[in-house]
Structure formats: C-alpha cells, structure tokens
Amino acid sequence: MRHTMKLLGLQARRIPALNIASRGRHSGTLISAHRNNPLLLRIATALDQKTPVVQVLDQWREQGNQVEPSDLRCIIKKLQDSHRFSHALQISEWMSSHPVYTLFPEDIASRVQLIETVLGLKEAEKFLESIPESMKDYTVYTTLLTLYTRSEDTLHKAEPVFEKMRELGFLLKPSPYNLILSLYSPLRNKEKVNELLIEMEENNVEPDDLTANHALLVYAAVSDIKAMEKFLRSNPGVKLEWGTCIDMAKAYLKSGSTEKALAMLHRTELLVDSSSRKPAYEALMRAYGDVGEREDVYRIWELHKSAGSSNEGYQAVISSLLTIGDMEGAEVIYREWELGGLPFDARIPNTLISGYNVKGMERRPIK
C-alpha cells in the first residue's frame, strides 16, 4: 500500500494544480454550504473567493482539525455534481499525496474520471499505468471501458479492456456488456451483438432495458425480423425507447409487414413523454407518412402543435404529406407556417419545391 501511495503522490505532483480558468472549468453552481459541515462551508467560501481548495485543506489540518476520508469523498462528489471538475481533481490529488489516507479502487476510478474530464484521455491513461494491478477492480475497469466506449475511434482500446474484464471474471453484470454494445450498435454489427447476448446467457446475466434497446436497434437496422421478434419473446418485460420502436416499425415496413409496422408505431406513441414529444412526434409523422396513413399524420401533427410550433415540426409534416401525395394539405400547412412568425428556414420551402418536382407540377409562388 505504501508503494501505491508513493506512486499516487508522484502522479499528483506531475499533474499541475489547476485554477478556475483551466480546461475543467464549467459554469456549474457552487456547492451548497451546510451548517453541520464547517469544512464544506469553508471550501464553498474559498470557491467564491477563488482561493485554492488545497490551501483550505492544509490550513484546516494546521489548525488541528481532522479531515476524514469520507468528508473528502463527499466534497469531491459535490464538486463533480456542480461541474467543478478541476477543483475536485485538486482534492483527489491532495488526498493521494497524504499517506495517512488509505485509497480504495473507487478512489482510483473517480480520479481516472476526473483526469479524463480535466486533462484528457491520454493523461488518464498515463495515470492508470502507474496504478498496481491489485488496485484495479471492477469499478476501475468499468470506468476505463466507459471512457473508451464514448467514441468509435477508441473501439480498438475498448475491446482489449473488455477482454481483460472477461479474464478477471468481471462480466457478471449488464453494465460492461451495455458499454461495448453501445459501440457495436451504431456499426450494425449483428454478429458481435449475438455473441455478447449468448455470453450473457451463459454467464447468467439478465439483459436489462439498455441491452434490449441496443440489440433491437441492430436487428432493426439490418431488417432481421426473426431475431427482433425472438428477442422480444424471450424478454417480454423490457422497456423500449420510442426511437427503438420507430426503427423496428421501419424494419417491419421494409419487410412488407404493414400491420406490424402500424402496431409498433401505436406502441411508440405510448412511450412519448413530455421531454421527448417534439422529436418523437416528428419521427412518428414521417413514419406514418411512409406507411401511407394520412389521418395519423394529421393526428400526430395536432399533438405536435400542442407541444409548441417549430420549423422541424413543419418540415416533418409537410414532408410526410408529400410522401402520401397530399399536395393540397402540404400547401395548407406551408401557408400556416408562412403566417406563423417562426424564423425563416429554407428547408421548408425547399421541401415543398421538391414535392412539386416529384409530381411534375408547376411551381407555385412561395416565400
């Protein structure tokens, strides 16, 4: 443990202390000062005065006060929650540089996250290289996998980490599988998805909602209706996202199953909440237009308007009506848009012009 502390202390000194103007600065709110936590109160005051937080900790100890590790972890968490990542990193470094504190893998994982946020992925990797394998548990590897699965560009790094977790017996929860699935899903890699689902079954790891949505998005993207329906039968209780249902409806329509496509679109409507109304309704209008359901397009359009007008909504409904062949309806909606007072958006008249071209009609005067 002393060797570990020495490594962490060296790493802390290697990374320079950061001020509020550093890369980690965010416009988060100050942490709330609690009367029953004088150290937290003092740190909150120091942040307001732009005083280095480590100076506050040093003064606190010099005055004979104890700095409990639980307090430090709490403060780090509160600073992270208020987007004070550079300050949280400073406290994490301070904690590592004092041998009196026993660090746990959770502290290492938190430090990795903070370094990546403030200094970048390469610095986080360098820090992790200095940590003994004995300190790298499930939490640390999951944190690293999370960082690598944020972009397809780091897939080549994510896969070895996932394999290492497999070797160490850490693949006993859905989380690591979901992280690697989040990379394979946009790539439409059905083979990899199937391999992971089989492995989860062999390891008695139940797919959760996130697993289900990743898998179904891939099956829908490659129009594998059998795999899609088999998964749904095997996992009847999963909660689907509205976007997943839209893609599944498109897969049904592409395969010629119009009734199943409509049933999935109706299921989609039940999943729309207040935070997703506009994008969901826009996707639904386009999907109903593809199916040829004129009344449903108008019905969803009324729901969209009740959520507030937007150029994206007008473009979606006009495009959907043109897909169905309702040119007159599209023109009525277009005139409504002209008089609605929304900012001009060239996509909307261009959408109508494209409709005229497809129908071989003479272009009418438009804005």
UniProtKB/TrEMBL annotation:
Repeat keyword on record: yes
Xref: PROSITE patterns: PPR (PS51375)
GO terms for cellular component: mitochondrion
Family: Belongs to the PPR family. P subfamily.
Protein name: Pentatricopeptide repeat-containing protein
GO molecular function: mRNA binding
Positions annotated as PPR repeat: 137-172
Highest taxon listed in the record's lineage: Eukaryota
Annotated organism of origin: Thlaspi arvense
Keywords (A to Z) from UniProt: Repeat
